[in-house]
Amino acid sequence: MQFDHCVGTKLEELCMEEESGQTFGRRMGRWRYQNGDDSQYKSKNLTAERKRREKLSQRLLALRSLMNKVTIIEDAVKYIKELQKNVKVLSDQLMEMEASTSMGDVKIPNGETVVADEMEQDKIEPDVKVTNIDRHKLWMKITFEKQRGRLTKLMEALSVHGLELNDISLTTSTGVTLISSCIQGTKGEVLEASSTRKLLQEIIERI
């Protein structure tokens, strides 16, 4: 009986130790499992945070690039507006010049202003005026009916007589042509206003 009791006691102790060992092992396993899960969770969080920051950085770069493009476009628009403003100013100035020219106002060297009056198209008489500038140079103003090629014929005729035109100004209005120019001899000879006017009058009547 004593032997059986001892054996039973030993068996109970072994069972208790085994159960205790299994319990300890299960606890250790659970602790390791829990620790492993926590480490994996932290790793996933770090990866997600890294990806989030990368996306944010990419978006910031894209935004900066877009802002640069917007700035370039704004500068281009501003430059185009300035060009358009300059074009308008120049166009207005050109229109003023054309309006002034169409009125037939011509400045001659001595400061006198000559105005070409409107003439009836069916009754236009040639008009020649010659003014002395110096001994070798005259200023002329010729008004005649507008016809194609008359200026060319006039210059050819003057060349035959040893005269040439410089600083020519040509204005046409309501069928009338106004030519103002300096006239001088091709060889620098002395010119007289009266004889030159007479010659010009004859040439205009022929051409």
From TrEMBL:
It is found in: Nucleus. Residues 46-89 form the BHLH domain. Keywords: Coiled coil, Nucleus, Transcription, Transcription regulation. GO terms for cellular component: nucleus. InterPro entries: bHLH_dom, HLH_DNA-bd_sf, TF_AMS/ICE1/BHLH6-like. Residues 73-100 form a coiled coil. GO terms for molecular function: DNA-binding transcription factor activity; protein dimerization activity; sequence-specific DNA binding. This is BHLH domain-containing protein. It comes from Trapa incisa.
